[in-house]
């Protein structure tokens, strides 16, 4: 299973659309800051399941603040990250939240900086920004039938 993960698009959907067409993921995940961009992707790609959460810049959000997403045999805890202090460089509360939900992957945004690491048995991935920044990025998460996970950050 392959998931395309975007965050912090801030109204810029063109690069995300292109990435989805190029990578043909099984699932799309949008991690907030303009959760309405996720609705645009849902309309453009109705055949691909899409999960989204809201961010700190979403006024009257259409998505929840956090969610638990099935990715093949594993679960991913998804959130924008602002509720877990990720901008301060601390990811421990995010790891704990993922562990409490039985998730082996935690996806977050908010910092506009890509991040891909493991802590406490949890894959932590921030796809960076799909909208604002000098180098827009996104993440590809590949989950294998045996529960193995491979995460990569790609330029948009």
Describe the 3D structure.
With 156 residues, the protein is an alpha/beta fold. The chain has a single domain, classed as Purple Acid Phosphatase, chain A, domain 2 (4-Layer Sandwich), CATH 3.60.21.10. Helices cover 18% and strands 33% of the residues. A five-stranded mixed β-sheet has the order 3-2-1-9-10, covered by helices on one side. A five-stranded mixed β-sheet has the order 4-5-6-8-7, covered by helices on one side.
Structural class: alpha/beta
User: Rg, please?
Assistant: 14 Å
CATH topology label:
Purple Acid Phosphatase, chain A, domain 2
Number of helices: 3
- Give the termini distance in whole angstroms: 21 Å
- Main sheet characteristics: 5 strands, mixed
Overall tally of structural domains = 1
CATH architecture assignment name: 4-Layer Sandwich
Order of helices and strands: EHEHEEEHEEEEE
Describe the strand arrangement of the main beta sheet, using strand numbers: 3-2-1-9-10
The residue fraction in helices comes out at: 10-25%
């Amino acid at each position: 299973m392959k998931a395309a993960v975007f965050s912090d698009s801030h109204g810029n959907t063109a690069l995300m659309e292109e990435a989805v067409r190029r990578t043909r993921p099984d699932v799309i995940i949008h991690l907030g800051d303009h959760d309405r961009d996720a609705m645009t992707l849902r309309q453009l790609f109705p055949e691909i399941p899409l999960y989204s959460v809201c961010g700190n810049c979403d006024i009257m959000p259409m998505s929840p603040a956090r969610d638990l997403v099935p990715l093949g045999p594993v679960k991913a805890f998804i959130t924008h990250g602002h509720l877990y202090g990720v901008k301060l460089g601390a990811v421990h509360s995010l790891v704990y939240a993922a562990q409490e939900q039985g998730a082996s992957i935690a996806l977050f945004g908010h910092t506009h900086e890509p991040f891909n690491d493991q802590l406490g048995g949890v894959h932590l991935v921030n796809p960076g920004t799909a909208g604002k920044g000098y180098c827009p990025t996104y993440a590809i998460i590949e989950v294998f039938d045996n529960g193995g996970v491979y995460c990569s950050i790609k330029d948009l």
